[in-house]
What we know:
The chain is α/β, with parallel strands linked by helices. The chain has 2 domains: 2-136 and 309-343, Medium-chain alcohol dehydrogenases, catalytic domain (Quinone Oxidoreductase, Chain A, domain 1), CATH 3.90.180.10; 156-288, 3-Layer(aba) Sandwich (Rossmann fold), CATH 3.40.50.720. 28% of the residues lie in helices and 28% in strands. It is built from 10 helices and 20 strands. The chain has helices at 39-47, 97-100, 143-162, 177-189, 201-209, 223-230, 245-253, 276-281, 296-304, 323-331, and strands at 2-8, 11-16, 27-36, 49-50, 53-54, 59-60, 64-72, 84-87, 90-91, 111-112, 126-130, 134-136, 169-173, 193-198, 214-217, 235-240, 255-263, 285-288, 314-319, 339-343. Helix 3 (143-162) crosses helix 4 (177-189) and helix 3 crosses helix 9 (296-304). The longest helix has 20 residues, at 143-162. The two termini are 20 Å apart.
Amino acid sequence: MKIAYFTGLRELGIEDAAEPELHRDKDVLLRIDRVGVCGSDVHYFLRGRIGDQQIEYPATIGHECSGTVIEVGRNVERLRAGDRVAIDPAISCGECDQCAAGRVNTCRNLQFMGCPGEAPGALAEYYVLPEKNCLPIPAGMTLDQAVLSEPLSIALHAVRLAEVYPAARVAVLGAGPIGLGVLLCAKASVQCIVYVTDLIDQRLSVARQCGADWTGNAKTEAAAAAIAQREPRGLDLVFECSGDPEIIDCAQRLLTPGGTLVLVGIPSTPRVSFDSHHMRRHELTFKNVRRQKGCVAPVIRMIGDGLIDAGRLLTHRFPLAQISDAFELVADYRDGVVKAVLDVSSAE
């Protein structure tokens, strides 16, 4: 089978490898059909690391994926050959204190696909996963939409963690796939007012299509001041989705006293600064988002029920042979890209 690797900074390769085989009774063998290019993949592509997680070359790639069941272990109950599935890339142990507390996203023995030192990446023609990580998709859902269920699950987890409520005044700073997902999930969950900022006009256009009540380009206008003018008492919730450390301080100043800042983006630096006096005097709450827990299945239902139009996020599609073109496009924010998907199998 074909499998893709990081071979150096801004370098990718495709090699032949042996097809995986089933060895455990609760596992399934999948054909990987689609793989999305995630922002975390781009961190590894450009820098070879995220914080203290550093890859060793050659390194496998990817975790946003959908596929088709080829074979099942003898104790698999929910799936059968031919089923199309969305994939939860986080393989939790189910035994540690975090799993027992329902915090599978902070499992102490977590194996995440494509993460250094953990599970192999998804960019391979075939893959073996536990049954619990493979979620069937309805007949009307495409494999492309199924890929988007993973980033959208992070967005839904963020919205749930923030406890977005009706009539809340919300800002989403950064209109990449996760920020747009937060917008979609918030709007699908409650009636709220959402302001969206980004540096790329094409992404702001997508945000308006996804239901943003106001958008502003933070590069060409004083977006924070414009929001403050419209909401002089401040916002109830701000989702920081850009990962830009400088935006975090701006984000907290948009909040009303008692407001909540939800940190979703991955900063490029290990440390960020906060105005502790502003935080204290306004009794602000800061929440960090660690991937997701239990949100892939709800997102699949929301897409299937038409509550979320995930297709608006998918802007580019590439065959596996053009993986370098896909990564360069996403890394350089070219051609209005929001989400690029690699077509691994050509299945529909």
